[in-house]
DNA sequence: TCAACGAATGAACATTTATTCATATGTTCA
DNA sequence: TGAACATATGAATAAATGTTCATTCGTTGA
């Protein structure tokens, strides 16, 4: 028998079992994509401003003190992640949070960082 | 009175009120930093492998099919975000999740992406 | 109809980030 | 002690990302 043994903590068959039980790679990829969207201060601030109200692009830009273009670009990213939604009214686009998950994810993250040693 | 009026949805005073109620910028920055760590498929997969057990670096590398060096680099990032912790035993370093938040954040994210239209 | 305005978009640039390769560190055991 | 091994780390490279600037699109109202 020409079996290759590894001398690590876990047996080869066990490693394979762990591989099997992992969620499929596409799911994990989507998950990473979602968190990537949360992983930017500008987008976090935008979501934060939208916590209790809808706002148009110009007002968001004022609140977070950034240019209209930058805000608009980030809003597109937030939109495609289904984190914010738009309502158009005349010349303006009003954005609001799309989903309760946003607040929940936000709060969980806060818990983690405030509990840090 | 030389007050500049804006003709957007919300009055200037209201905008300032919203600015005031925003969490301070350092908190939001840390929050973004935390989610940035979740925002990478390799790190997500590592955390996932560690969901129910501790593993040494070599085994993690086997499970997620990446090089030892890449895994080690990512573990350092996870460690400094307090998401995983190490226990050293002889030649090996055993990593495990540091915190229940990891699982909670993970599951919330999964909920969000599976509910998408 | 056309000027003014709010928002969206594309291209360019600078910065950040993940991976790889090579090497260093630290531990075990022969 | 020194060879073998597990892990960590530094430098280099390639790829991804955020912001800015310039421009376009779409709507309003004079």
Characteristics:
homodimer; about 120 residues; mainly alpha; 3-stranded antiparallel sheet; 6 helices; elongated; DNA-binding
Offer a concise description of the structure.
The structure is a homodimer of 117-residue chains. By secondary structure, chain A is mainly alpha-helical. The first copy, chain A, contains six helices and three strands, in the order H-H-H-E-H-H-E-E-H.
Structural features, described:
Two copies of one chain form a homodimer. Chain A has helices spanning 12-21, 25-38, 41-49, 57-64, 68-80, 100-114, and strands at residues 55-56, 84-89, 92-97. In chain A, strand 2 (84-89) and strand 3 form a beta hairpin. In chain A, 59% of the residues lie in helices and 12% in strands. In chain A, helix 4 packs across helix 5. The N and C termini of chain A lie far apart (51 Å). Chain A contains six helices and three strands. Residues 1-7 of chain A have low confidence and may be disordered. A three-stranded antiparallel β-sheet of chain A has the order 1-3-2. The longest helix of chain A has 15 residues, at 100-114. Chain A has 117 residues and is mainly alpha-helical. The interface between A and B is large, with 54 and 54 residues. Chain A binds a DNA duplex (30 and 30 nucleotides) through helix 5.
List the helices and strands and how they pair.
Two copies of one chain form a homodimer.
Chain A: H1 12-21, H2 25-38, H3 41-49, E1 55-56, H4 57-64, H5 68-80, E2 84-89, E3 92-97, H6 100-114
Antiparallel strand pairs in A: 1-3, 2-3
Chain A binds a DNA duplex (30 and 30 nucleotides) through residues 7-8, 36, 40, 42, 56-58, 66-76, 88, 90-93.
């Amino acid at each position: 028998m020409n079996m290759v043994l590894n001398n690590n903590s876990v047996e080869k068959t066990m490693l394979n079992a762990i591989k099997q039980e992992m969620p499929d790679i596409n799911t994990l990829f989507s998950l990473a994509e979602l968190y990537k969207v949360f992983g930017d201060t500008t987008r976090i601030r935008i979501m934060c401003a939208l916590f209790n109200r809808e706002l148009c692009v110009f007002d968001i830009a004022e609140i977070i003190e950034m240019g209209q273009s930058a805000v608009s670009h980030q809003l597109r990213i937030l939109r495609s992640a289904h984190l914010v939604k738009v309502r158009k009214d005349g010349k303006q686009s009003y954005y609001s949070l799309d989903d309760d998950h946003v607040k929940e994810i936000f709060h969980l993250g806060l818990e983690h960082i405030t509990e840090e040693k």
